């Protein structure tokens, strides 16, 4: 759906920092081109501060979905030297055959859902999850219809910085569970707000979409899963 995968989006917007005794002090100076992570930072906020994309920061610092940034950690916030070389300089054919890539390990099964979800909107489902083109459910409605939190949690992202998702909210419910609410007309909560199950958090709209709808996604751990599997029957 979006040009940036939600794997990177979730990494940037939901990985809250855990204090680590072995990490350098958060107030230690950072060398040029780097940033020292402060308590409460998220990767998205750092990317926004330094006018970089989240994908670049994740790549430059070799961050995986299962990583978490920590207070005191150094992050590169400027391109490494040579990152801007022309394609002709970096894509020259090699005389030696490239070594075969090792077989990828199968993805771990998603953790069990430990909370109860409720439907975030009242309309009919007009597009189902398919794991490829649509990583969630599209729910129809009228502009201004209420969008509700599927469970209690903390807002870890509120904004429109992710292309094709429009006005977007991400709510973190526990260490393993996040829900995503896209294409909203108005956001009624902000980052770091605590929300309760069923609380109205937005109004339905068509921002970043070709019609009024709510696009709703569910993440368990680092995996996107079918929300319909976990929502109660209507």
From TrEMBL:
CDD domains: LysM (cd00118), M23_peptidase (cd12797). Gene3D superfamilies: Glucose Permease (Domain IIA), LysM domain. The keyword Magnesium does not apply. Coiled coil: none annotated. This is Peptidase. Residues 79-114 are annotated as: Disordered. InterPro entries: Cell_wall_metabolism_enzyme, Dup_hybrid_motif, LysM, LysM_dom_sf, M23ase_b-sheet_dom. Residues 33-77 form the LysM domain. SUPFAM superfamilies: Duplicated hybrid motif. Belongs to the E.coli NlpD/Haemophilus LppB family. Residues 1-28 form the signal peptide. GO terms for molecular function: metalloendopeptidase activity. Residues 85-101 have a biased composition (Low complexity). Keywords: Signal. It comes from Chromobacterium amazonense.
